[in-house]
């Protein structure tokens, strides 16, 4: 099993980092991402530490990096033969089919039923790929990410579970090249997949399978420990956590119990400084350039949300078909009522309501708010709006290069609300409202 890239922090570095006990490592008011983090010293203002710059592909960073120039729509044409159509594709990306699924026999230690882990292991079991790039955990920690080039199904299964931290997985491409791997599967986040697709023709691979994970607001490991300390009664015993469709954070503890915290109860005054500017300048929560995306946001509690995007993605789903329960996706509620209020909150963050009011709001969200696919649409719309606002507030000169046209198309229904709250519409004056082939 390969080791971390040479420049990665070691477990002892993590343990001794003063940021693990001293609060967030950066703030949104700083212009650089995680400026006191040793790995990222000297990196550009926007960097998610995907690992590409650790490899022989570093000279191609300017052409591949999503934070230098977002090439999503150009890559869509190459991958799918078209760009997104109006409707759900504006939020979810190009897809052939969309369904809810789960394994009949869940994988022990997996975040959900274990579809991603099982699929990657099966590719190796059947000899369809030579290796899988995935992310394990630094020994001695619960969530500190350690990129792994898995060569056996057992090595894949050992990486089960979510590691919600920035991870330089693409740094393993040097190892892939040195080992002579020609058939590769990659489990990656949206920014990683963008870089991978942009550099795909230089990898020299016979086959590349991309399994996408929906992703938003990853943090460094020190900032993750700070976050969990603010939201949990027992942060040191959490084994999994996720922001769920019932408008609450679910935290599963090592004794099997689940702790829940309503979104409305979050101590935002203690959390505003932990999210990297790169994540707040990303517009691909749904990981739209993968062959298949496997998440949860658009499905009911207990199910996984699957978007098949390419013919290869359809073949990947078939590898799991006999082990799956499937059901139709549902949708309820109306995001057009709540999202404009979210825009007002971007303009003027509200104070924390009294506890009885928060309980009422949580009940209304769960029982009257968007649910199912409408919940996923609402969450993605809000993330697009928030991140567009962040780019305009902090990196306005970058907007023409890093905000793709589909963002404006998706947010067009909120143009007036955005203008009323923030003083400018969704569409910038210089952007054509017609989508053109790159």
What is the straight-line distance between the termini? 41 Å
Write down the secondary-structure element order.
HHHHHEHEEHHEHEHEEEEEHEEHHEHHHH
The poorly predicted ranges are 1-36, 434-438
Helical run tally: 17
Structural class of the helix and strand makeup? alpha+beta
How big is the Rg? Answer: 21 Å
Biggest sheet layout: 8 strands, mixed
Proportion of residues in β-strands: 15-25%
Spatially, the strands of the biggest sheet line up as 3-2-4-5-9-10-1-11
What would you call the shape? globular
Mean pLDDT: 87
Helix amount: 25-40%
Tell me the total number of β-strands.
13
Keywords:
eight-stranded mixed β-sheet, globular, 17 helices, alpha+beta, disordered N terminus, 34% helix, three-stranded antiparallel β-sheet, disordered C terminus, 438 residues
């Amino acid at each position: 099993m390969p080791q971390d890239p040479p420049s990665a922090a070691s477990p002892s570095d993590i343990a001794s980092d003063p940021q693990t006990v001293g609060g967030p490592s950066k703030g949104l008011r700083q212009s650089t991402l995680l400026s006191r983090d040793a790995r990222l010293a000297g990196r550009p203002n926007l960097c998610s530490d995907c690992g590409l710059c650790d490899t022989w592909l570093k000279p191609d960073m300017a052409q591949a990096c999503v934070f230098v120039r977002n090439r999503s729509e150009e890559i869509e044409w190459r991958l799918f033969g078209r760009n997104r159509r109006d409707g759900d594709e504006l939020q979810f990306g190009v897809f052939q089919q969309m369904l809810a699924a789960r394994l009949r026999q869940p994988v022990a230690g997996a975040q959900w039923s274990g579809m991603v882990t099982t699929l990657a292991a099966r590719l190796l079991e059947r000899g369809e790929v030579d290796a899988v790039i995935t992310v394990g955990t630094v020994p001695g920690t619960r969530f500190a990410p350690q990129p792994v080039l898995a060569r056996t199904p057992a090595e894949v299964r050992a990486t089960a579970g979510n590691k919600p931290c920035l991870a330089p997985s693409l740094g393993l491409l040097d190892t892939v090249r040195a080992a002579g791997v020609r058939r590769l599967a990659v489990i990656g986040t949206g920014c990683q997949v963008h870089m991978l697709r942009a550099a795909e023709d230089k990898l020299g691979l016979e086959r590349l399978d991309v399994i996408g994970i929906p992703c938003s607001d990853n943090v460094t490991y020190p900032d993750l420990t700070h976050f969990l300390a603010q939201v949990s009664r027992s942060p040191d015993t959490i084994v999994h956590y996720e922001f769920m469709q019932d408008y609450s954070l679910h935290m599963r503890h090592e004794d099997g119990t689940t702790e829940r915290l309503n979104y409305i109860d979050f101590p935002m005054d203690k959390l505003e400084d932990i999210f990297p500017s790169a994540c707040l300048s990303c517009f691909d929560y749904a990981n739209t350039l993968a062959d298949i995306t496997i998440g949860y946001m658009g499905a009911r509690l207990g199910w996984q949300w699957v978007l098949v995007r390419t013919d290869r993605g359809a073949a990947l789903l078939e590898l799991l078909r006999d082990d799956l329960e499937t059901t139709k996706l549902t949708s309820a509620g109306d995001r057009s009522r709540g999202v404009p209020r979210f825009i007002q909150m971007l303009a003027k963050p509200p104070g924390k309501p009294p506890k009885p009011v928060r309980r009422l709001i949580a009940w209304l969200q769960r029982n009257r708010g968007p649910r199912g696919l409408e919940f996923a649409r609402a969450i993605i719309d809000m993330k697009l709006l928030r991140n567009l606002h962040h780019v305009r507030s902090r990196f306005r000169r970058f907007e023409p290069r890093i905000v793709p046209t589909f963002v404006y198309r998706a947010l067009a229904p909120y143009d007036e609300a955005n203008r009323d709250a923030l003083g400018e519409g969704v569409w910038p004056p210089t952007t054509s409202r017609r989508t053109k082939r790159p």
